Amino acid sequence: MRQPVSTRVAMLVGIAGASAVLLGAFGAHALRGVLDGRGMELWHTAVNYHAWHALALVMTAALGRGRSGRTALFAFGTGIVLFSGSLYALALGAPRWVGIITPLGGLAFVLGWLALGWTLRWRNE
Known about the structure:
Strand content: under 5%
Structural class: mainly alpha
Helix content: over 70%
Oligomer: single chain
């Protein structure tokens, strides 16, 4: 039987998914012709990782358990903010040093996937 998720987790999942859609649409419509090719490429990469990891949050909320499940939720959320957020900022003209943040978000994504794998490992035992 499926366990209910907390309101905080449900809001995180909803906000992550909705913001991925909104930022994708914003980039496709409002930023077309405003950003150069490199800016649009950065924006597209940010939206792509944002959307995939919003789905990872859904999977974690549904299947994650215990400390590793909470770690995965935190890591995926942090990864979206740091990785995608820094790419959004760079696309909009933030200073190049903001790019230092991007790999930290990538590491958070990796940690999230490892934690999700760990929680799934113990799920059937």
